[in-house]
């Protein structure tokens, strides 16, 4: 099972990400993606869904037309782990 | 453009739907779907996405693993229209 990141490792991992922020009152990270239209937004979600299932780590996310809001945390670990950083990195790659 | 439903038409349309409820403080309807797992939940979303784009009417929705929460309203009309009832009916069919 993935272990919670130490504060210094979490800080370093956050430095390597762009556009992600810590969620208030919760050990989680979040980002809002905006696309050209619904097709682009849902196309992104479909790509992420496949990767999520493959690595067995899934986002909390919502979609309104061309906007996708994502929150990542590792429920089993009660906070942020390498899995969240890995999925965040993959999402940025898939949104690119 | 779709016109807002009259209260009596809205009530009749709601009667024909199962598991949908009016949202508080907003002219919108909502439903929570629960599936077996993420693959089933996202498979449902993919089917709905295609129908949504086809009828040019899109849900506000969120997903956490096997749960999909949906809210429908017609922003352009400032409330509920036939489009929402049509999409709700389609979603129930696609979830079945």
Automatic annotation (TrEMBL), chains A, B:
The keyword Lyase applies. It is an enzyme of class 4 (lyase). Keywords: Lyase. It catalyses: (4aS,6R)-4a-hydroxy-L-erythro-5,6,7,8-tetrahydrobiopterin = (6R)-L-erythro-6,7-dihydrobiopterin + H2O. GO terms for biological process: tetrahydrobiopterin biosynthetic process. GO terms for molecular function: 4-alpha-hydroxytetrahydrobiopterin dehydratase activity. It comes from the Bacteria. InterPro entries: PCD_sf, Pterin_deHydtase. CDD domains: PCD_DCoH_subfamily_b. Its EC number is 4.2.1.96. PANTHER family: PTERIN-4-ALPHA-CARBINOLAMINE DEHYDRATASE. NCBIfam families: PRK00823.1-2, PRK00823.1-3. Belongs to the pterin-4-alpha-carbinolamine dehydratase family. This is Putative pterin-4-alpha-carbinolamine dehydratase.
């Amino acid at each position: 099972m993935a272990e919670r990141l130490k504060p210094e490792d979490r800080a370093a991992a956050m430095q390597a990400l762009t556009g992600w922020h810590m969620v208030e009152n919760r050990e989680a990270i979040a980002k809002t993606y905006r696309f050209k239209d619904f097709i682009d937004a849902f196309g992104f979600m479909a790509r992420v869904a496949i990767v999520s299932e493959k690595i067995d780590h899934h986002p909390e996310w919502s979609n309104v037309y061309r906007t996708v809001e994502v929150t990542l945390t590792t429920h089993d670990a009660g906070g942020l782990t390498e899995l969240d950083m890995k999925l965040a990195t993959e999402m940025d790659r898939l949104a690119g």
